[in-house]
Amino acid sequence: MNGPRTTLPPETGTETAAPAPAVLRLGRPAKGLLVTSLLVVTALFLGGTFLGTDAWWPFGPWRMYATSTAPSGPVGSTKIEVLEAGTEGWQPAPLVPDTVGLNRAEIEGRMPKIQSDPAILGTLISSHARLRPHDPAWTAVRVVRSDVLLRNGSPTGETKDTTLAVWPDSARTAEDNAPRIPTPADGAK
User: Fold this and answer.
1) On the CB side of 149, how many CA atoms lie within 13 Å of its CA?
2) Largest CA distance in the chain
3) What is the DSSP letter of 118?
4) What is the 3-state secondary structure (H, E, C) of 129-188?
5) What region does 157 belong to: left with phi over 0, alpha with psi -120 to 50, or beta?
6) Cys-Cys crosslink for 59: which of 2, 21, 44, 181, Cβ 3.0 to 4.6 Å?
7) In terms of pLDDT, which residue wins out, 150 or 189?
8) CA distances (Å), 120 to each of 49, 111, 161, in order?
9) Does this model's pTM top 0.70?
């Protein structure tokens, strides 16, 4: 299998080597470009790994692949709750592009900025109005971190909700100022 291919001409019955395919060789400029590209990409990945943040994606540290959850303790998830026009009480809302133009990971990645300037949440209200014009209008939105407590890798059934940001601030309630344990009547699942 290895080595030159051979053919047998019908008239002689002896083997001859098939012509070798043409080999394309790169010139010095092309080799230099390849080496430079490889060095730049390597430097970006190494810089992102040791110095970068998740905002450097795809060159940032991929922490999601480098960490794990302890078998006992909280596992957190971010969700949004809204107040709708004409209703009372916070209602859970889907945190998906079809509803607000963003997904949960994008909100989680921007939480420090959202917490320092909750007015950013107003964009979720305007996005919802644009994407879902026939749905009830949202008058307020809050971001809630829901922690499910684990023991030896299994859920204990306990959850703890903590409000991370509310907009507008006038919609903030007393329950937003302290962690709370949801009950089935609160819509906890």
Assistant:
1) 9
2) 99
3) G
4) HHHCCCCCCEEEEEEEEEEEEEECCEEEEEEEEEEEEEECHHHCCHHHHCCECCCHHHCC
5) left
6) 44
7) 150
8) 29, 10, 21
9) no
The CA radius of gyration of the chain, in Å to the nearest whole number, is: 29
What is the per-residue pLDDT across 103-122, written as a single tens digit (0 to 9) for each? Answer: 888 999 899 999 999 999 99
The pLDDT-based confidence of 10 (bands split at 50, 70, 90) is low
User: Would you tell me how many other CB atoms lie within 10 Å of the CB of residue 74?
Assistant: 15
Q: What are phi and psi of 106, to 5 degrees?
A: -70, -35
Burial of 80 per CB tally in 10 Å (0-12, 13-18, 19+): buried
Cα(31)–Cα(109) distance, integer angstroms: 39
Between CA 159 and CA 76 the distance in angstroms is 9
Q: Which two tokens stand for residue 34?
A: 């390849």
Instruction: From residue 165, give the alpha-carbon distance in Å to each of 35, 115, 126, 129, 181.
Output: 48, 6, 17, 20, 18
CA count, 13 A, side-chain hemisphere, 74: 11
Instruction: State the pairing for strand pair 138-151/16-17.
Output: unpaired
What are 35-66's pLDDT values in tens digits? 999 999 999 888 888 887 777 777 777 766 66
